[in-house]
Design brief:
- The protein is of the alpha+beta class and 69 residues long.
- It is built from two helices and two strands, in the order E-E-H-H.
- It has helices spanning 31-39, 45-61; strands at residues 4-12, 19-25.
- Strands 1-2 form a two-stranded antiparallel sheet.
- A hairpin with a 6-residue loop joins strand 1 and strand 2.
- Helix 1 packs antiparallel against helix 2.
- The radius of gyration is 15 Å and the shape is elongated.
Length: 69
């Protein structure tokens, strides 16, 4: 399973009553959103590690260039 950034959301179309589930995967987030989440004071350590792993993965593939200090 892909790594999730936050919980999945259930959306209900009020006209047709169709239910759709929206997953919030970390690979779909922009690099700026990930950096903001990593630097935020209220971010839990588990999410911070997930974000760091994703940024390292993107660095290896050449998609971004983020340096950790």
């Amino acid at each position: 399973m892909p790594v999730k950034f936050s919980k999945s959301q259930v959306r209900v179309d009020r006209q047709t009553k169709k239910v759709s589930i929206e997953h919030d995967y970390i690979k779909c987030k922009s690099t700026n959103d990930l950096i903001e989440a990593y630097n935020k004071d209220g971010t839990k350590p588990k999410l911070r590690q997930k974000v760091k792993n994703e940024l390292v993965r993107r660095n290896k593939r050449g998609l971004s260039n983020v340096v950790f200090k």
